[in-house]
Amino acid sequence: MAHGKSLLDSGIDFLFLPNVLNSETAHTHTASQFCPWGQTLPFVVASVPKWEKELRQKLLSPTVRFRDGERYIVEDLFDCFGPLGVSRKEIREGIRDGYREQANFGRFLEIAGAEAIARVEKAGADAIVLLGRPYNLYDRDVNLNIPAKLRDQYGGNVIPIDFLPVDDIDIRDVNDNMFWNYGRKIIAAGKWCRNRPKFHMIYITNFKCGPDSFVRHFITRASGSPYLTLQFDGHGNDAGYVTRCEAYLDSKGVLRPWAQQ
């Protein structure tokens, strides 16, 4: 899907696939890089022999550094879109509209997360905290819909990482140079769970994820407790994953109460 082959086949004029290097962050003591696959995706796609000739004319892949702020983003995008007749003013307005919508979505997650956590804590209930990157947590085909099955089949209270208030958590006591932005967020979520024994972590990752293979080693140090890793690799059968979830939750002493609900 990221390669946009179906879009090329539909006869589009251009394919916009930016080379995004980093993210804005309040933790300026270290870098906030995107993962290597995300950074290099436009170059990988452009080198596919079958598409190379067509993509050379249609691929728009400006380098974008969100960490550097609006002024630099405008210039990065203008270098790409200026020759197509798009002005700096139009680019700046588009960026501000994007940031405004992102802020609105962030506030929605903050409110929804606070409500979910408050309800779980008020009930003295157990919850499953999903750690991982958005494309693994929220794509039902990638994760075989395991999060929904934990909720629907076992009655689990499933809370994704984006519902947790982790942006202000300092992780330097765990790793003082976590230069991947989402890696910092995942470790911060582990710290958030540290003094909350009823919040049980499941880390959803994918095969061949270099950053996750590094980040995972810091989760137990951050949280002070064991957790479950589910590594998805494109197989279509969920039996092994469900068995692992059952074994993990049973070892935590929470599977039977949920199964009875």
Radius of gyration: 21 Å
Number of helices: 12
In which range does the helix fraction lie? 40-55%
In total, the number of domains comes to: 2
Major sheet details: 4 strands, parallel
Strand content is 5-15%
Low confidence ranges:
none
- Please give the order of strands in the largest beta sheet: 6-5-7-8
The end-to-end distance, rounded to whole angstroms, is: 39 Å
The computed structural class is: alpha/beta
Number of strands: 8
Query: What would you say the CATH architecture of the largest domain is?
Result: 3-Layer(aba) Sandwich
Average pLDDT level: 90
SSE string, helix = H, strand = E? HEEHHEEHHEHHEHEHHEHH
CATH topology of the largest domain: Rossmann fold
Question: What's the CATH class of the largest domain, please?
Answer: Alpha Beta
- What sort of overall outline do the alpha carbons produce when their principal axes are compared? globular
